[in-house]
Amino acid sequence: LNAHNARHMWHPMGHPGALQEKPPRVIKSADGSTITDLNGHSVVDGVGGLWCVNVGYSCQPIKDAIAAQVQELPYYSAFAGTTNAPAIELSYELREMFASDGMGRAFFTSGGSDAVETALRLARQYHKVRGDHGRTKFLSLKKGYHGTHFGGASVNGNNRFRINYEPLLPGCFHLPSPYPYRNPFGETDPARLAQLCAAAMVDEIEFQGADTIAAFIMEPIQGAGGVIVPHESFMGLMREICSRYGILMIADEVITGFGRTGDWSGSRHWGVQPDMMTMAKGITSGYFPFGACMVSDAVAEVFEQGDATDASIFHGYTYSAHPVGAAAALACIRESQRMAINENAAPRGTQLFEGLKALKDKHEMIGDVRGGHGLMAAVELVSDRDTKAPAAPETLTAVFNTAYEAGAMVRIGGNNLLMSPPLVITEQEITIILSALDEGLS
Ligand code: PMP
């Protein structure tokens, strides 16, 4: 396996200078919050697969639901004139779960990038159906991550994910992120920074012309960009600006949904109802590739009332509303609610955040620690605290590898170590992550 892995499997991020082991480690099995590699080495999974395995790896009801659905109906298209029972049932469950976020209808996809692409396309179409043909541009935030399709890559706020694939979608503008540690305003007070970012958004809208902008997309807490937690006022300010200028607000909840932040959505923390939400990852906890773009009833109604041709949605995937994915999502949501995994995310997230802050006191190379809203955390490594110069990639690799040997998987993102363990993680397992990191940093 190791030989074939090196030779035949094309690994993303596998370029020379890639940070992690080459070829990547083979993960063979998993149980609870622990993963085991081909060499039999077991570690606590500090990244939940990839911000997604919320219920952990041993959720028997999801495994059973998948097996039963494969027996009954392994696949049928829900794209062109047919649908299936689990998908219908799931749309009802999601409506209930996200009613307080203002969400009404669900359009199902096979993952997060598809969900973002769906939101962007439907946002443009929404304006066209209303006769507002000039609204085609998109706004997003620097440091944001919205997937790898051309639309998502175009609104991504990290150049690394864009540069090799240009030219991307024209008319996408990236606004300052509310990132107190590094921001163009040099502002460290989060509330004041939120206001400055909001003012920058208004400037850009006025400059572009409000009637040219279709939508604004943001993560309630930026994940892959380094777990950037905005001031509590920030998303509300953005909501207010979007409403004022007739711009649709898309909350990208691919990471923050389904309990990761300690509640079922990230938007809820900030008391905001977006017009659209994108979801994936925790919707099935990774047991099956699946995603959704939910919209408010007000958005959906525009499509229903519009001219028949304009309002037809020529968008969908072979695997939209895949019955096995829908069955996995239904079981995952029920188990997540039964176990109240969001309630565990909050205290365990606090434990992780406090533990990381204690590591900052001990290790000079930690420049910033972020988290505190459920189980999403980051430590930003620097070579000099005063200049904030990012730590060398080799330093991050060394910390990563030592932490792995010491019993915890973390993730490297730029000069950050990112953490998003399963939401069922125990107090003792968080302690293992912290001590493994301590060893790596030492
Ligand atoms: N949006 C966000 C906020 C994400 O974090 C991700 C994946 N990390 C995506 C979209 C893309 O999802 P996927 O990888 O499932 O296509």
TrEMBL record:
<protein>
    <recommendedName>
        <fullName>Adenosylmethionine-8-amino-7-oxononanoate aminotransferase</fullName>
    </recommendedName>
</protein>
<dbReference type="InterPro" id="IPR049704">
    <property type="entry name" value="Aminotrans_3_PPA_site"/>
</dbReference>
<dbReference type="GO" id="GO:0008483">
    <property type="term" value="F:transaminase activity"/>
</dbReference>
<dbReference type="InterPro" id="IPR015422">
    <property type="entry name" value="PyrdxlP-dep_Trfase_small"/>
</dbReference>
<dbReference type="Pfam" id="PF00202">
    <property type="entry name" value="Aminotran_3"/>
</dbReference>
<dbReference type="InterPro" id="IPR015421">
    <property type="entry name" value="PyrdxlP-dep_Trfase_major"/>
</dbReference>
<keyword id="KW-0808">Transferase</keyword>
<dbReference type="GO" id="GO:0030170">
    <property type="term" value="F:pyridoxal phosphate binding"/>
</dbReference>
<dbReference type="InterPro" id="IPR005814">
    <property type="entry name" value="Aminotrans_3"/>
</dbReference>
<keyword id="KW-0663">Pyridoxal phosphate</keyword>
<comment type="similarity">
    <text>Belongs to the class-III pyridoxal-phosphate-dependent aminotransferase family.</text>
</comment>
<dbReference type="InterPro" id="IPR015424">
    <property type="entry name" value="PyrdxlP-dep_Trfase"/>
</dbReference>
<keyword id="KW-0032">Aminotransferase</keyword>
